[in-house]
Structure formats: C-alpha cells, structure tokens
C-alpha cells in the first residue's frame, strides 16, 4: 500500500468517527492528495497525522457536528445502522428459509405477525435508544427498552398462540431480495451535496446557512423558557452524554 493510501485509509476512519461520511470526505481527500503531490513530501509532513487532519475538518464545521452525538452519529444514522443490521441478518435467515421450505414460503397468521413483531422488536432494541439519545430525548431512550420488552412478549405470544393454518405463500426469494436491496440502499454512497472547491472544502470557508444546517431546531428558544431549559438538559444528557447532575448544574448556570 502506498504511503498516501495508508494515510487516506486512516483519515477516512478518523473522519467517519467524527460524523463526516464517505461522500463528504472524498473532496477533502482529493484536495489533500493534490496538495501532497504538489509539495512532493510525505503526507504526514504535509498534512499532519490523519487524526489531526480529521480534527481540523470537524472543528471547521461546528453546526454539522452539533447535530451529532459523542459517537459522531445523528438520529438518522442510528436508524439506518439498525435497518442495515436487520437486512444483513435477513440474508442468512432467507437462505435458511429456502433450504427448509423450498421455492415457496408458506404464510400463516402466527408466522407472519410473529416475524413482523420480531423485526420491530430488534429495530427498537438496536436503533431506538441511540436515535433518541442523539435527538436529545434520554428519557424516551430509556423507555425504548421497556417498549422492546413488550414487543418481545407480543412476539412470543404471536408465535405460540395465533392460528397456524396456511392462508397463502410467497416465493422464498422475496425476503432474500428485500434484504439484499436494503443492504445496497443503505450502503450506496449518497449524492454529494454541492461544496466549495479547492482548499475552501477543507477549511469549511463560507457562511453556514442555519436553515440548511438543521441546527435551528436545537438552538432556537421556544416561547416558554422552562421548555427551552428542559430541551437543553435533554440535549446535554442525551446527545452529549453529560451526566444528569452535571447537566442540571449547567442548565441552572445558563
């Protein structure tokens, strides 16, 4: 692996850890590559370590970083990651179904509703807590575990007690195709937004548009101050993992 390729690999990981996705990082990496080629020096000398590079890029985008939690993820990221995990698990499950049932998968009330509830249980369990915390709703995040437990009980009840008479069938390839399609949709590079060219892309030059940054919903104060302070407490405790007591102190100081 070439020297810059090693640097790029680590830089993309560091950028991803800070919530800068692949398509957002690509123009920055291209600028970095061009700078290294022009200077004729080692990328570590020309640009610093990949971690330092990622820190500088993230620091130049405070509005975008403010929407992300301590894992560098937004609520949408947690939901898409949960869906991807289900889709990946759906591939071997579909292959097992093909081996057991052949070309047609029989449908029963018990199996159909139980499967739907099982998928919902897994999605709530793996995605909802992180998504709600990233949205600044830590209390709802804790409640999502109780919701997952209730869904699990409903799943067991559906498989155990609902009718098992066959009412139809679908090709066993359908779940496999759906799982593979979801994997592709959730991993394909999104269309890159218009960005400044050259070193402006690295430095983040140019005024940010708060309407497009999506941060106005978190920073704009509502008509009632109590609601605003409650929202601030939720963001501190949920999105940024500030201990509840410390978040309370910060809100009181504000």
Key features of this structure:
254 residues, 3 domains, 14 helices, membrane, single chain, elongated, two-stranded antiparallel ribbon, transmembrane, mainly alpha, transmembrane helix
Can you characterise this structure?
The chain has helices spanning 3-17, 22-39, 43-47, 50-59, 62-66, 75-101, 109-134, 138-161, 173-187, 199-203, 210-213, 216-219, 225-239, 244-253; strands at 104-108, 166-171. Mean pLDDT is 76; it is low at 192-217. It has a two-stranded antiparallel sheet with strand order 1-2. By secondary structure, it is mainly α. The chain is built from 14 helices and 2 strands.
First-to-last CA distance = 51 Å
- Structure classification: mainly alpha
Helix and strand pattern:
HHHHHHEHHEHHHHHH
- How is the biggest beta sheet arranged? 2 strands, antiparallel
Helix content: over 70%
Order of strands across the biggest sheet? 1-2
How many structural domains are formed by the residues? 3
Give start-end ranges of low-pLDDT stretches.
Answer: 192-217
- Beta content comes to under 5%
- What is the average per-residue confidence, as pLDDT, rounded to a whole number? 76
Number of strands: 2
Q: Give Rg in angstroms.
A: 23 Å
Discrete helix count: 14
What is the approximate shape? elongated
Keywords: Membrane, Transmembrane, Transmembrane helix
Please sum up the structure shown.
By secondary structure, the protein is mainly alpha-helical.
Topology of this protein?
Elements: H1 3-17, H2 22-39, H3 43-47, H4 50-59, H5 62-66, H6 75-101, E1 104-108, H7 109-134, H8 138-161, E2 166-171, H9 173-187, H10 199-203, H11 210-213, H12 216-219, H13 225-239, H14 244-253
Antiparallel strand pairs: 1-2
Helix pairs in contact: 1-2, 1-4, 6-7, 6-9, 7-8, 13-14
């Amino acid at each position: 692996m070439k020297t810059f390729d090693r640097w790029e690999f680590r830089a993309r990981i560091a950028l991803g850890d800070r919530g800068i996705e692949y398509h957002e990082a690509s123009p920055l990496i291209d600028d970095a590559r061009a700078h290294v080629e022009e200077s004729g020096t080692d990328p570590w000398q020309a640009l610093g370590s990949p971690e330092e590079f990622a820190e500088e890029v993230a620091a130049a985008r405070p509005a975008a970083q403010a929407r992300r939690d301590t894992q560098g993820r937004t609520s949408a990221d947690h939901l898409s990651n949960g869906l991807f995990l289900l889709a990946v698990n759906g591939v071997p499950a579909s292959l097992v179904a093909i081996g057991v049932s052949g070309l047609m998968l029989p449908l029963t009330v018990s199996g159909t509703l139980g499967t739907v509830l099982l998928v919902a249980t897994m999605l709530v369990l793996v995605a909802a807590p992180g998504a709600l915390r990233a949205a600044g709703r830590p209390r709802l995040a804790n409640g999502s575990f109780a919701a997952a437990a209730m869904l699990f009980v409903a799943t067991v009840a559906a498989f155990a007690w609902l009718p098992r008479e066959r009412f139809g069938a679908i090709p066993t390839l359908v779940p496999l195709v759906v799982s593979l399609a979801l994997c592709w949709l959730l991993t394909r590079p999104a269309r890159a937004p218009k960005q400044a060219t050259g070193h402006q892309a690295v430095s983040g030059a140019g005024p940010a548009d708060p309407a497009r940054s999506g941060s106005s919903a978190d920073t704009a104060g509502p008509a009632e101050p109590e609601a605003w302070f409650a929202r601030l407490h939720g963001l501190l405790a949920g999105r940024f993992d500030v201990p509840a007591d410390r978040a309370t102190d910060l809100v009181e100081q504000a």
